[in-house]
Amino acid sequence: MSFVPGSSRHPGPRQLQGSKPGLLDPTQPARILRHPNSTLCFAAFDPLAASGHAHPRKRTPDADPARPKRIVIETTPGNRMPSRWRFVPRARRAPGTPGSEDEGVWPRLVIVCGEPFILTEDQWDIYKLDPIYDCFIPAAPHHSIITRKEPSLQDASHTRGDSTAEHAKKRRLSSPALDSEEHRNLNKKFRTVVSLVTDDEGTDIEEATESDDEDEVEDIVIEELPRKDPSSSDRAKQRRKAREEQTRERREKVKAKAGSSFESNRSRTPEIVDLTMEDITPPGSTTANGVPAGSTKRKVFGGQDSPEETSSRGRTYQPNKRARTLSPGTARADMERKRAERERRRMAQQQERMNGMKEQREQQFWKGVFADTPLPTPPPSQHNDGSQRTAEDTRLNDEDAERQAAIEESRRKLAELEKDRPLWEQEARKRAMQEQMEEEARRLRKEEEQLRAAEAAAQERQRQRAEAAAAEAQRRAQSEQARVQQEREQRRRKERARWSYGPWTTGRAIERYKMLSDEFDATKFSVDNPADFEMIPWPVLHSPVTLRLEDIEWSAVEAFFDAAKKHMRTQDYKVFVEKSHKRFHPDRWRARGILKSVSDEELRNCLEVTANTVAQALTPIWRAMKG
């Protein structure tokens, strides 16, 4: 029953997660699970965890110990059957995709049979385990694709799997240790195929597969089993030695077989691939010989070329495991040598091209020199009745003369060119010196421009800092002025409240005058702290609530000092008059800048007239006190 997903009813791709097969294809569990009710779980294989020891025994070192290997573990319900595990095969890759083990970040969008789904890594591995589906990773930015294989490809895959399973059961010699009850349940899918690839120089290089890792797993299992007697170790060594000998012989046969057809099949793709490594060509593409990718698989050994061994029980074993023929260091050194040889050939070809271009330039130069040489004109014949022999001799002599003249002209031009060589060299030196001077001038101009730009930037920063400082100072001055004005207003309100209540008497008038006089004499007037009418201690007996500029007259000043004379002692009165006279003197006001601090011109004029009136009224009183 085929599976063709319908159109999605959801606005976005459906998400497939978990390790349960058959979410889209109901027939999938029958192809993957050994038991209908088994459960799958996926993990990364680690030889240390498989051995159960923190310090494993000496084994073959892995060339890439950091690469992850995904395995699938099948567990039956109720543990009625032992759990089994195997490696998850790789997906096919497009040419140029990075990495061989890393298949990207999960979950991600995957096109399953033409419909997009969000798949987790477990669901992706389930489709890789299913033999009727093909998992392909194209180059970025395309999404991964899962398609259903053709029926012919599925039949070939099943045939190849059966053959592989049959060979996998015959991969080792029989022994009491392996034939015991403890080894009957050891059934894993070991890969038994050798892959040969050809590098750029045509040298056969063996491609590493997962068989070495699986041999390591098998060795771990065998080493962890209890040994019944000392002879088991000897038998294991003999089996290992026999296996290495078989691998060596098989490798020699493969090399001999590959070398015979190397010249005709040099550019062909590898004929022998890993069972778990599908072809990396996109779906629908074919190989160089027209066979569909992944349809068939040739075995390494066939017929009389397949080495066979016969055990003591009469069985015939066909070993299909081979070890590495070259160490990574040897292969790397060989590649470096070939790369150096290619570099030498490239340099030789480049030198040859340069020599050819130089020779071509010289030939063009000589052609130009000979082209500029005028051909001599033969003189007209003076004897028309000469014999034909004389004419022919004359023609030959003329040709020799022309040739000789051309040679002489060429020699002359060459001599002139050689004579002018010092001039050419001198001109070349002058041009080089001129270019050097111009380059130096450009460099100096560039440095000067950079210096001017740096100076301008510094000046701009300084100007900005100055503006910021001025703005900050102005802000502080305004804040201070506002604070002073606020304090002044508060003080005025307090004074007004103080002198506004209660009966107004002569004593309170004199007391208020003295208090305002002390504050007036101590205040420094400026534009930020200007003088006003209420700050000046006017010597009158009027109440500050009703006092106006029109009330300050000559008679009011005389009445104030007459009342003060009655309330004060004579000596105190003299001091009082002396200070008042100096306080309202016009020169004193001008020196203190009282009037300049007032910004309102009308108020300034009124204050000036009133202060002069008080000063003129105080002058006779001060003189009478002195007399």
Query: Total number of helical segments?
Result: 15
Q: In one word, what is the shape?
A: flat
**Helical amount:** 40-55%
Please outline the major beta sheet.
Answer: 6 strands, mixed
Q: Please tell me how large the radius of gyration is.
A: 57 Å
End-to-end span in angstroms?
142 Å
> What is the string of helix and strand elements?
EHEHEEEEEHEEHHEEHHEEHHHHHHHH
Beta-sheet strand percentage?
5-15%
Tell me how many strands there are: 13
Q: Structural class of the helices, strands and pairings?
A: alpha/beta
Whole-number mean pLDDT: 74
Instruction: List the uncertain runs.
Output: 1-8, 55-66, 163-211, 262-314
Q: Give the neighbour order of strands across the main sheet.
A: 1-7-6-9-8-5
Biased composition (Acidic residues): 198-222
Region (Disordered): 1-30, 148-184, 198-497
Biased composition (Basic and acidic residues): 148-167, 224-252, 333-346, 355-364, 390-466
